[in-house]
Write the structure tokens for this entry.
Amino acid sequence: MKKIFLLSFILCLFPLVSLAAGKPVWVTAEGEALQGEFDTLKEIKDRARRDAQNKAVEMAVGTFIKSHTLVSNAQVAEDLIYAAVRGKITKEKILSSGWDAQERNLYKIRIQALVEPIYPEKGQGLSVKLSLSKSDLQEGDEVKIFYTVSEDAYVYIFSVAADGSVTLLLPNAHLADNFVRANQAGQFPPAGSPISLKAMFLPGYEGKTAEERIKIIATKKKEPLLSLGFQEGLFQVYDEKSTGMIGDLVRRLNAIDPTDWAQAVAVYQLKK
């Protein structure tokens, strides 16, 4: 059987992403609630206030994410923990409240809230472990990727090039099924696969060593994490001009509960 070879990519030129803890932000939000036939005034006020609080947190989370905007697809190799940020109201002021002038059954409240960013604690929810067959490689060495998940999940494996292009290794045109059972050892390429992952320097690279990374993201449900890039053989590739790729990935992950997805990075050294 003819083997299909996939070149791994040099990542040594990537800048590291600073993920300093975000600062609390003040936001203003309006909530409302319609009066039902059997609702008490307290129930209506509580519903309107919860609506305003939910909107305030949603607005603040958008601010937290924008503060961590990435400008390069290459940075998908770094932590995406900021995509799991949520918010907690620590202070709140009621600016106005009362019945709507036109809709007499509609109660409205306007609040100003101080929202603090919170991140999921390690060990909560889904987790994923990632390792490589070797951590020190010579050019031409074959690389195997090993992984396990703490719960049944779908895995997405990425390789990223120094020029900013991203290759989605799994799933791919030959291996569309990326589901893995909890605590079951996963391997890419799988045993018996015609795909072979080899460590190679990019053409024209003059250095003698390079640091490379493989990124894995696991989700409890099958998710359309990325819009389509272009197809290069078996694999979906996002070139350096696809600057929206990382933003798209962050938006999709942020829509998932932080305990329902996880990530890991494996690093190895490549030598000539």
Summary: The helical segments are 41-66, 244-254.
